[in-house]
Amino acid sequence: MRKKLKIAQIAPIWYPVPPKKYGGTERIVYFLTEELVKRGHKVFLFASGDSKTSAKLIPSRKRHLAKDKIPWSDTFWEFEHFSFSFKKIKRMNFDIVHSHGGIRSIFFQDFIDTPVVYTFHNPLSVNYFQKMPPGLKILSLHSKNLNVCFLSNSHLKLCKLKFKRVWTVYNGIDINFFKFSKKPENFFLWVGRVEPKKGVENAIKAAKMAKVKLLLVGKIDPERKKYFEKVIKPNLSRKIKYLGELPARELLKLYRKAKALLFPLEWDEPFGLVMAEAMACGTPVIAFKMGSAPEVVKDGITGFVVPFLDKRGKKNIKGLVEAIKNIEKIKRENCRKWVKEKFTIEKMTENYEKIYYQLAK
Length: 361
What we know:
Blueprint: E1 6-10, H1 24-38, E2 42-47, E3 56-59, H2 76-90, E4 96-99, E5 116-119, H3 134-142, E6 147-150, H4 153-159, E7 165-168, E8 188-191, H5 200-210, E9 214-217, H6 225-232, E10 240-242, H7 248-257, E11 261-263, H8 273-280, E12 285-288, H9 293-296, E13 303-306, H10 317-325, H11 332-342, H12 345-359
Parallel strand pairs: 1-2, 1-4, 2-3, 4-5, 5-6, 6-7, 8-9, 9-10, 11-12, 12-13
Helix pairs in contact: 1-12, 5-10, 8-11
């Protein structure tokens, strides 16, 4: 029997762990931390003071940054959080450190002797930008000394940097929370942050062409209010409704009742938790073939993965419409089974545990 580990989990500081609404990374950190504690490891969570955990919480500040309306551009608060965390870690004799803080947390690694593994929850794609962004340039200078995890094989492939060690670990969800529903109601669902790359316009166009009811759920950041008012709001009607950002239990009800989740992204999503959450309820997913979608959705079995462009080189809205019309062909039981096999908290934690033991001294 392997010895239990002393593990430091470093969360981002923008939202609490777990988040009340928006915050995919924080939700994953919460699931992972709680499962590691269940397995007998001694876990310390470095996060905001308004976080809740079964682990030992070590806060760098009392409240998360979004609570104090600190803008995303004010990154110095992140550096303060990472500096605090690594300073504490240096004194505490951990077996392994797991950082979920992205590129900005890598600069502190050399100040401790404990092995560190980083999970990059956001895209690090060279192709997504016209030129390599400054953050990725900095990462390229350090990458050969880093142990890193990506959320999907497509996420890893698009980065194109060389690392010391690298793994793919799919995110996991609480399969017991997302209850299965065999009989849906007559509407489709879109869930995400309200912005162009998340495909909300594509979902609306497809729903209109297919003449189906569509419910929109998601957060509107302050900088996207004009986009919503100008582009999305004029399309709202009796059949196309925006419900705002909903708590988890209200969203669960919609997942279970929807005929399908529309996920026609226009960027390379690293994972896409909402796809796994919907399928866990038995709700198939209709997605564009972008980013992780072909890995998360089993085409023809748990939904449809539609080519992004049609034969004329234009966005394939007609392909989405065809998928909508054929959604009855997908067995909802297959969706649930697929998630239980691939995307549970237990599976995710098991994969991270293997990595910890490889790296721990």
